[in-house]
Amino acid sequence: MNPSAHGWINKLLFVENFSTSLSTIATDDFYKELRRNGFIYGSNVSVFKDYVVNTDFTSEEICKVNLITAFNYIHSTTITSSSFVDSIIDFYTHINAYKASFFSELLGGKKNVSTLEKILHKRVQIDDNLIERSFNYFITNALLFTDILAYKMYLKTEQISEVYLKNLEAAIETVVIQTLNSKILKSDYDESLIDLFEQSRRYHDTKKMAYNEALSYITEPLEKFYLLDIACMAAWGDTIIDKKEYDFLNKLSEDLDLEVTNTDEATSAINVFYKKHKNKIALLSSKNVVKTFYNNSSEMVTKLISRNSKRLVKELQESKDLMKLLTQSTIRELNEDEQKRVNNQLLDVFKSIPSLAIFLLPGGALLLPIVIKFIPKLLPSAFDDNRVDN
Question: Which intervals hold domain Letm1 RBD (predicted)?
Answer without folding.
Answer: 334-386
